[in-house]
Write a structure and sequence with these properties.
The protein is built from 21 helices and no strands. By secondary structure, the protein is mostly helical.
Length: about 475
C-alpha cells in the first residue's frame, strides 16, 4: 500500500476518523493495528522480522534499565546492537559482501584456494523499511544506555514507536523520546494542525506523482543503457534525477509528516530546500535527509570523537561516516563511492577554508552574487555524486562521465537542439515551478503564505494542485526510491 495510491488515502481517512472517535486509551492500539496491517500489505513475512527486532530491542532496553554495573550494561548494549544490526547485515548485505569477496579472490587469482570456505548465496528479499527501523532501534538502545531515556516498559507503546506506519517505510528516523512522549498524552482535535497536515499530504503527493514520476521516465530511459544514450540526454537525465530524487524522497517525507500531523503526532523535519545550500557541509548538516544526518552525527561521528580529536582523525571520522552512510543506502559499491565523494568534499572544504576566505576577501564579490555562485557550485558538486547514486554499476557511472566529458566541445549545441523537444521542455517546466516555490519558501513557507489569504485564494491553490495531479500526475504507482534502502 504505497502512499501515492488511492487505497492508502482511503485507509488513512478511515484510521484518522476512527482515531478521533475513540478515547485516548484506545488510540495507541488502533495505530499499532493500523501499522501492522499497513506493513502486511507488502508481505506478511515482513512482520516476522519486524516483530523479532522489536522484541529483541524491547528486551535489551529493559535489561539495560535493570542493571547498574557499567561493564554488564556495555555487554547488554553490545549484544542488543549486534542482534539488531545482524538483521540488516544478513538481509541487506550478506550477498553483497559474499560477491565482493568472490570478485576479490578472482582478481588475485585465489578463487580456487581451498583455505577459503564456500558460502552459498542466500538471495534474500530486502525487507522494506528495514534500514530505517533498525536505526530507530539502535538509537533507542544507545539513549537508554546513556540514560537520556528511561527504558519503555509498555510493550505496545514501544512496538508502535518501531512500526508507526507514516515513518515505517522511509523515515524520518524518529527518536524514541519525543515520539513516546506524544503518544502518552491525550490529543485533542486541532483544526489548524489537521489543515496543515492535509496541506503537506497534498504537496507531498504533488511532488511525487507530478514532478518525480514524470522526471523518472526520462531518467530511466537515459540511464538504462548509458553507452547508447546521447551525451545531451545523459546530462539532462542527471539534472532531472537530482530533482526526481529530491521530490520523490521529500514528497514521501512531506506525506509522512503530514499524515502524522493530522493524527496530532509531530515527526521531525527531514528536508529544508537542499538545493539552495551554499556548501556541501550545509547540504548535509542542515538541509538534506536531516533525520539520517543527525543520526550519524549523534550515534557514530560524536562517539568516534567528532572534531574533538587531531585533525587527521577528524577527517578520518568524516570520511568513515560518509562511507558508512553510502553503504547504508544500498548494497553496492556505487553507493560507497557516492558517500566517499561527499565525505571527500567536506575534507577538501575544511582544508581550503582559509584560502577561500582570503580569495573572497581579496576579490570582494557582492554578498548576493557570492551566495548565488556558492549555490550553483554546491549544486553541481552534489550533481556529480548523483551519477554514482543513480547508475546501475560503477562501469555505467564512468560511462556517463566519460561520454559527457568527451563531448564537451559539442555539448552546448547538442543541448540547444535537445531543449526544443517536448519530452525535455515539460520536465524543465516542472523543475522551474518547483525551484521558484523553493526560493519563496526560503523566506516564508508556501502554506504560511497561503494560510492568511482569503478562502477563495486558498482553495484556488488547492484546486490548482488537484488539477495538476489529475492532468499531469503519473499514477503508475511507482515505488518511492528510498523504499529500496
Amino acid at each position: 500500500m504505497l502512499f501515492n495510491s488511492f487505497s492508502f488515502l482511503a485507509f488513512f481517512g478511515v484510521v484518522a476518523a476512527a482515531y478521533y472517535a475513540l478515547p485516548h486509551r484506545f488510540r495507541w492500539p488502533l495505530l499499532l493495528a493500523a501499522s501492522v496491517y499497513f506493513y502486511s500489505t507488502f508481505s506478511l513475512s515482513y512482520l516476522v522480522l519486524l516483530g523479532a527486532v522489536t522484541v529483541v530491542t524491547y528486551g535489551a532496553g529493559l535489561a539495560l534499565g535493570s542493571v547498574v554495573d557499567r561493564n554488564r550494561r556495555k555487554g547488554i548494549l553490545a549484544v542488543g546492537i549486534v542482534v539488531v544490526i545482524s538483521a540488516l547485515l544478513v538481509f541487506k548485505y550478506y550477498d553483497f559482501f559474499l560477491d565482493s569477496f568472490a570478485s576479490l579472490l578472482v582478481r588475485v587469482d585465489a578463487s580456487t584456494l581451498s583455505i577459503f570456505p564456500r558460502f552459498p548465496r542466500l538471495d534474500l528479499v530486502l525487507f522494506v523499511g528495514l534500514s530505517f527501523y533498525t536505526f530507530s532501534c539502535v538509537s533507542y538502545l544507545v539513549d537508554v544506555y546513556e540514560e537520556r531515556l528511561a527504558p519503555v516498559t509498555h510493550f505496545g507503546h514501544f512496538a508502535l514507536y518501531v512500526s508507526y506506519f507514516p515513518k515505517l517505510l522511509a523515515g524520518p528516523i524518529e527518536r524514541a523520546r519525543p515520539f513516546l512522549d506524544q503518544i502518552r498524552q491525550p490529543v485533542r482535535f486541532d483544526s489548524a494542525g489537521v489543515v496543515l497536515g492535509l496541506q503537506l499530504l497534498l504537496w507531498g503527493l504533488f511532488k511525487k506523482v507530478v514532478v518525480a514520476d514524470n522526471l523518472a521516465a526520462f531518467v530511466d530511459g537515459a540511464y538504462a543503457q548509458p553507452a547508447f544514450a546521447s551525451p545531451a540526454d545523459l546530462v539532462l537525465a542527471t539534472y532531472f534525477f537530482a530533482f526526481q530524487l529530491y521530490c520523490d524522497f521529500s514528497g514521501y517525507s512531506d506525506m509522512a509528516i503530514g499524515a502524522s500531523m493530522v493524527l496530532g503526532i509531530r515527526l521531525m523535519e527531514n528536508f529544508r530546500r537542499p538545493y539552495l545550500s551554499t556548501s556541501v557541509a550545509e547540504f548535509w548538516a542542515k538541509r538534506w535527509h536531516l533525520s539520517l544526518a543527525s543520526w550519524f552525527r549523534d550515534y557514530m561521528y560524536i562517539p568516534m570523537g567528532g572534531s574533538r580529536v587531531s585533525q587527521f582523525r577528524h577527517y578520518g571520522n568524516v570520511l568513515a561516516v560518509f562511507l558508512v552512510s553510502g553503504l547504508w543506502h544500498g548494497a553496492s559499491w556505487t553507493f560507497v563511492i557516492w558517500g566517499g565523494l561527499n565525505g571527500l568534499y567536506q575534507v577538501i572544504s575544511a582544508l581550503t577554508r582559509g584560502l577561500r576566505e582570503r580569495v573572497t576577501g581579496f576579490v570582494r564579490i557582492p554578498s548576493a552574487a557570492s551566495t548565488v555562485v556558492s549555490v550553483v557550485v554546491t549544486f553541481h558538486l552534489i550533481l556529480v555524486t548523483w551519477v554514482f547514486f543513480r547508475a546501475a554499476s560503477i562501469a555505467d557511472a564512468f560511462t556517463v562521465i566519460s561520454r559527457v566529458a568527451a563531448a564537451a566541445s559539442t555539448l552546448p549545441a547538442m543541448l540547444a537542439a535537445r531543449l526544443q523537444a517536448a519530452d525535455v521542455l515539460f520536465p524543465i517546466a516542472l523543475i522551474v515551478i518547483l525551484f521558484a516555490i523553493e526560493i519563496l519558501d526560503e523566506r516564508t513557507p508556501l502554506w504560511e503564505r497561503v494560510g492568511p489569504r482569503p478562502v477563495f485564494v486558498r482553495w484556488a491553490v488547492y484546486y490548482a494542485i488537484l488539477i495538476a495531479l489529475v492532468v499531469f500526475g503519473s499514477w503508475q504507482l511507482q515505488n518511492f526510491v528510498y523504499m529500496q534502502f
